[in-house]
Design brief:
Layout (H helix, E strand, L loop, with lengths): L6 H19 L3 E5 L9 E10 L20 E10 L5 E3 L4 E3 L10 E16 L5 E4 L16 E2 L3 E5 L6 E5 L2 E2 L12 E7 L1 H7 L4 E7 L14 E5 L31 H16 L8 E6 L12 E2 L3 E2 H16 L9 E6 L1 H12 L7 E4 L22 E3 L4 E3 L1 E4 L5 E4 H11 L8 H9 L21 H11 L1 H7 L1 H8 L3 E6 L7 H13 L7 E5 L14 H4 L3 H4 L1 H11 L12
Parallel strand pairs: 1-10, 14-15, 14-18, 18-19, 19-24, 24-25
Antiparallel strand pairs: 1-4, 2-3, 2-6, 3-5, 6-7, 6-8, 6-9, 8-11, 12-13, 13-15, 16-17, 20-21, 22-23
Helix pairs in contact: 9-11
Length: about 575
């Protein structure tokens, strides 16, 4: 028989439910301030609160987009004109991940810390006025950016039944970056870009780390081919070490490669490259890694963009000629090549496509999406939502990151919400936001127009059409093949692991189908690494943990063959072969 409640008992139960619900919704609030002794003027920026259950590590030390399970709870809030000694309250209005709001935090002990990623006001040449985080020489990393403020970690006990206000004082300032010093083999170039300075309405510098060949100083008549190694922000030349590995280096286990002492392996391989570099019969050439961090990311994707400006032209018409002039480059298209992995893989191919006469070959490893029918696992042309596959009665969240066994550790929603904590208007400095900034047009508010809504995942197909026409490399190659064929034939090389952690494999599948349908034939190469993760770069004889350290030598046999077959009559094939 059904239970029946009298009015008094029903009222008591209702009161209990309301009280319990109120307690569940109650949230700790955080009161943040910074003293005038740290910064004496009002500040704009993104205030990021980190709430960590790991009591043994500084919370800001373990925020990494490729390791979301290792990240703490995060909450973000934009501040404008925050005055010294004034208090900013962070409550349930702050956007959070993985808890959407502070009231979603479970009871327990936490280590909490706040960081302010500072913004500056930019007056662009086209009239836009934007507040953005400038790079300060660190490669657009807010946790270690010079001038950013942060608080000392504070241990708290959070009890939703008894919420309190936690005060955090951002009295610590990240110190400056020490620039790398020149050496016998490595030089560092920085130059003002007239093109970028005009776009941004302020002086903008781009630069490069230059690896000089052995014998550069003693062979003044030699001129050299140029290899452009694209990738994320380089602190210095990668994978090059003139001294043996440090015998006292404590071994560090690599979770990514499942190897003990991987830091020792890196030093050993870097020293082995140096030994090859100076060996008697090794070809002599220049290697450069470009430094082009900007207000949106640690590099520009090396193309012209509505939101970042003419970085493609700045790199290829200002920086490259200056480097070849200073360091005796051959300065001919037959003697230039590009390669790189991940972001650098996309850049290598894009540079070859958009500047087809300037380079003689691109080696694109594990490239970011080169065909937007597979923008990771999202088909931008056919799908309506970036975050979820929806059926009649069910919904499946799209994955974004997997390990080598295929275990999913983050969804598309996770990755984008994590970014949204770190910055709205594509200001997080992270992966999906830079794709929005580079590939998209400017929006009505002056910031990048998103290809999908960050909260809901709804795709904007008008913006997708812009992406396709300007940056879908597979589409552009096919669309323009009549004019590109004589310039790109034999120059395109693409490599990816079929177990890529970021699901970049499918994009290459689609692109390969298009490439192989071209007439005349593209005469290039697409290869897949069996069971290989991100970022497999084309060597089937070496584990990825090793081959990723060999970019500057791995493609050399194919490059030398290409030079021999394509150099014009009278080309200098000897001065650099001493």
């Amino acid at each position: 028989m059904p239970l029946r409640f009298g009015p008094a008992l029903f009222a008591a139960l209702l009161a209990l439910l309301v009280t319990t619900a109120g307690q569940a919704r109650a949230a700790e609030t955080f009161a943040a301030s910074f003293p005038a002794t740290a910064v004496s003027t009002p500040l704009d920026g993104r205030l990021i609160l980190l709430v960590s259950r790991d009591l043994n590590r500084e919370p800001k030390s373990h925020v990494a987009p490729n390791a979301p399970l290792d990240a703490p709870y995060m909450f973000g809030q934009t501040v404008d004109g925050w005055a010294p000694d004034a208090t900013v309250i962070m409550g349930d209005g702050a956007f959070g991940w993985p808890a959407r709001a502070l009231s979603g935090l479970p009871e327990g002990d936490y280590l909490v810390q706040a960081v302010l990623n500072r913004y500056e006001t930019y007056h662009l040449a086209d009239g836009r006025i934007l507040k953005l985080p400038p790079d300060q020489g660190e490669g657009q990393q807010w946790a270690s950016k010079p001038g950013n403020l942060f608080s000392r970690p504070v241990r708290i006990h959070l009890d939703p039944a008894h919420p309190e206000t936690v005060r955090l004082v951002l009295d610590q300032v990240v110190g400056p970056v020490t620039p790398p010093a020149d050496s016998e083999f490595v030089r560092h170039v920085s130059m003002r870009s007239a093109l970028l300075s005009k776009f941004w309405g302020r002086d903008v510098y781009i630069g490069a780390h230059v690896l000089l060949p052995a014998g550069f100083a003693t062979h003044p008549a030699a001129h050299y081919p140029l290899m452009v190694f694209h990738g994320h922000f380089p602190a210095d030349i990668s994978e090059f070490r003139t001294t043996p590995p440090d015998p006292d280096l404590a071994p560090v286990y690599s979770d990514r490669f499942h190897l003990a002492g991987y830091n020792r392996i890196e030093q050993q391989e870097a020293y082995a490259f140096y030994q090859r570099w100076i060996s008697a019969k090794f070809p002599r050439f220049l290697v450069i890694e470009i430094a082009h961090a900007n207000p949106y990311f640690d590099d520009s994707y090396a193309v012209n963009s509505a939101n970042l400006g003419p970085y493609g032209d700045a790199i290829n018409t200002e920086l490259i000629p200056e480097i070849e002039k200073r360091f005796r480059g051959l300065a001919q298209g037959w003697a230039r090549f590009t390669y790189g992995g991940s972001t650098g893989g996309w850049e290598a191919l894009a540079t070859q496509v958009f500047y087809p006469d300037m380079y003689n070959g691109a080696f694109a490893a594990c490239p970011d999406p080169i065909d937007f029918r597979a923008y990771t696992l999202i088909n931008l042309y056919a799908d309506d939502n970036a975050y979820a596959l929806k059926g009649e009665a069910s919904r499946v969240e799209r994955p974004a990151f997997r390990n080598y066994l295929g275990e999913v550790t983050a969804t598309q929603r996770d990755m984008n919400y994590m970014e949204l904590v770190q910055g709205d208007h594509s200001r997080s400095g992270q992966q999906y936001d830079i794709w929005q900034a580079v590939f998209g047009p400017a929006g009505a508010d002056g910031y990048p127009r998103p290809v999908f809504d960050k909260l809901t995942g709804k795709i904007d197909h008008d913006t997708v059409a812009y992406w396709r026409d300007h940056y879908d490399l597979s589409w552009i190659i096919q669309r323009d093949w009549a004019s590109l064929a004589p310039k790109l034939k034999g120059k395109i090389h693409v490599y990816v692991g079929n177990g890529d952690n970021y699901y970049l494999t499918d994009s290459v599948y689609f692109a390969q189908d298009r490439l192989e349908s071209l007439k005349p034939a593209y005469d290039g190469e697409v290869a897949y690494g069996d069971r290989a993760e991100h970022c497999w770069n084309g060597d089937p004889t070496q584990p990825n943990a090793y081959s990723r350290l060999h970019y500057n030598t791995q493609y050399l046999p194919k490059i030398l063959d290409r030079i021999a077959r394509s150099a014009p009559p009278g080309a200098d094939l000897t001065s650099w072969r001493y």
